[in-house]
Amino acid sequence: METARPLVLGIDFGTSNSACALIDAQGALQVIPLDGAKAEMPTALFFASETHSVLFGAEAMQAYLNGTEGRLLRSLKSLMGSRLMDEYTAVGDKSIRFFDIVVLFFKELKRRCEAHVGQPLTHAMLGRPVHFVDDDTERDQLAQETLGRAATEAGFTQIAYQLEPIAAALDYEQRVAKETTALVVDIGGGTSDFTVIRLNPERSAQGDRTADILATTGVHIGGTDFDRLLDLTTVMPHLGYKHVGTGGRIVPSSVFFDLSTWHLIHQAYTRKSMHFAKELWTDYTDQALHRRLMDALEEQHGHRMLASVEAAKIACSISGDGAVVNVDFLDRSLAPTVDAANMEAALHASLAQVVQCAQDCVAAAGLQAVDAVYLTGGSSALRTLIAALRAAMPQATLVEGNRFGGVAAGLAWAGAVHPY
Ligand SMILES: Nc1ncnc2c1ncn2[C@@H]1O[C@H](COP(=O)(O)OP(=O)(O)OP(=O)(O)O)[C@@H](O)[C@H]1O
Ligand SMILES: [Mg+2]
After folding, report:
1. What is the pTM of this model?
2. pLDDT tens profile 20-78
3. What ligand has the least distance to the C-alpha of 383?
């Protein structure tokens, strides 16, 4: 008698959001409700100082935004492949390795999924971007190993990997009726990944699809970069970014880059950085700007400012209208706005790189054009990006897909046919 296949958990550990799915014993896709009823869960942890508890996902974001005393960690995936992964960071009166924080997150994912399916899960299909790190195969390999090690330490004993855009394609394939050559575009929080793949529902059940994958490309640009660029253009000037100070010199800018980069914000609060920032007053001619910078650092408003920028980005990308970045906690007299014009100006160069990478993928597949462009990932909702892709690929049908759960679903399909 054939033994039942073990359940394989597809894990999309995303820069901004994570999601999990599996194919159940009846062969049906189950996307796990990870965060309340929602499939996607913010890749965030919050270490609360007073209660010494650790919160995950939406709860973590909420606690932080409500002003609970403690430390927020977000965008951990951006540290994969970097030396920071093995460094210790202060949370409350303890210090903990970034790697161990990732392990904590994986343990929580595993616990929530097991609670949902009512049995232990040991097999994982892990998604990975085309490039964790651009132009450095050694560090890229290290990043994948780190991801696998974190899953192993969390208790998964059998691990395999699939590229995120291929997973997204496998999910899309469930909905195509005939052979289609598709460019799958996955614009997430940290990376933009592309695959040109021949989709055919009749070949869905095959484990090895290597022959159908015509090309993959990827670039390390995503929604968190857009947040940074928009923070730098809308909020940071009020703290002195690009302020022309004494002697006609521009104020040194590293503190503004740290404050507007999710995974580097904590660096701005170290004693050394705070000291450096304090001394910057001599570079400012407008001391009110410097006072605001020091307020932001002393009150540790970095994540709050960036979360407000992100909210305004999303609001503007959905409605097309300008959206105010709420920084009342810093200074009620300020009302920086994200609108179509400054968004276009701030993101133009990055979006051009993303579109170029999409075109490179089609060219690498040896094609002039594809039948369909399938969009997935949270940042694929950006109107300017959709317009740029449409202009670059006029022959293709643009399909707006499952923005958040698609990669996890595809990983589940890949896991179900993988020979562990
Ligand atoms: N409507 C929207 N318009 C623009 N951006 C959006 C919208 N909704 C979400 N985003 C952005 O999408 C990003 C998250 O997308 P997603 O969950 O696909 O990323 P991820 O899978 O976590 O990241 P990655 O795949 O790069 O590791 C965030 O940067 C978020 O700000
Ligand atoms: Mg993703």
Report:
1. 0.93
2. 999 999 999 999 999 999 999 999 999 999 999 999 999 999 999 888 999 999 999 99
3. 1
Nearest-angstrom CA–CA distance, 212 and 205? 13
Residues contacting 50, CB < 8 A, separation 6+: 68, 69, 70
Q: Between β-strands 180-187 and 158-163, what pairing exists: parallel, antiparallel or unpaired?
A: unpaired
Please determine, for residue 404, whether its predicted confidence score (pLDDT) is greater than 60: yes
**CB of 224 sitting under 6 A from ligand 1:** yes
Pocket probe for ligand 1: among 13, 16, 43, 80, the residue whose CB has the most ligand atoms within 8 Å is: 16
Full set of structural domains in the chain with CATH: 8-177+403-417 (3.30.420.40), 224-342 (no CATH)
Tokens linked to 114 = 């097991």
Q: Cite the beta strand spans of 79-164 per DSSP E.
A: 88-91, 94-97, 123-128, 158-163
* Distance (Å) from CA 288 to ligand 1 centroid: 34
Closest residue by Cα to atom 2, ligand 1, is 314
Mean pLDDT of the chain: 95
Please report the atom of ligand 1 found closest to the CA of residue 17.
22
Which of 11, 13, 17 best tests ligand 1's pocket when mutated (most atoms within 8 Å of CB)?
17
Average pLDDT over residues 319-344: 96
